Amino acid sequence: MTTVLVVDDQFLIRAGLVGLLRAAPGIEVVGEAGDGAEAVALAAETAPEVILMDIRMPGMNGIEATERILAQATDPTPRILVLTTFDLDEYVYGALRAGACGFLLKDSGPERLLAAVTAVASGDALFAPSVTRRLVEAYARQTASEQPADLDALTSRELEVLKLIARGLSNLEIADRLYISEATVKTHLNRTMTKLDLESRAQAVVVAYESGLVTPGG
């Protein structure tokens, strides 16, 4: 069973998400929260595998809640999926930088929601690469890192893989492009994330843009 915590300050939306997830096979809803502070407490108490996190909430918003949850989590850390109304949203970008695994539009259909939860639980990126790239490109120049990642620690192949990830290619597409196995792509990505102290594929994409490895529109 995949355990899920649902966080949304709007009762009807939260109730709808909880009802849909509880009706799906293989998913167990372990809690629901109406604000960021409650989400942080419940995440510590229930240790969910996946958290559906509303981003705009009164009090503690989804970005701060994401940071706190990941900071206090023990292995395995929860996979946080941000819920938003708009795909081009500076709050979403902030959440990705904070360590969220991706985002889902609130008007997504039931099948997309369930597929997203399944993808996140299995460790995959859960947003469309094209949307991720558009989002990052829209805000990378506005939100430059105070301390850009030092890419000198990466090998030439790791840099190559990181660049293709930032361009929106899947692991399988990268494997085909570089004539290596998909498992090797994952190994390079995992080593890159370890060297750069990153928590998610989304953060790797952001770092690629903020460090100048990939440029918007380039």
UniProtKB/TrEMBL annotation:
The modification 4-aspartylphosphate is found at residue 54. InterPro entries: CheY-like_superfamily, NreC/VraR/RcsB-like_REC, Sig_transdc_resp-reg_receiver, Tscrpt_reg_LuxR_C, WalR-like. Residues 147-212 form the HTH luxR-type domain. CDD domains: LuxR_C_like, REC_NarL-like. Signal peptide: none annotated. Pfam families: GerE, Response_reg. It comes from the Bacteria. Coiled coil: none annotated. PANTHER family: TRANSCRIPTIONAL REGULATORY PROTEIN NARL-RELATED, TWO-COMPONENT RESPONSE REGULATOR. This is Response regulator transcription factor. The lineage of its organism: Bacteria, Bacillati, Actinomycetota, Actinomycetes, Kitasatosporales.
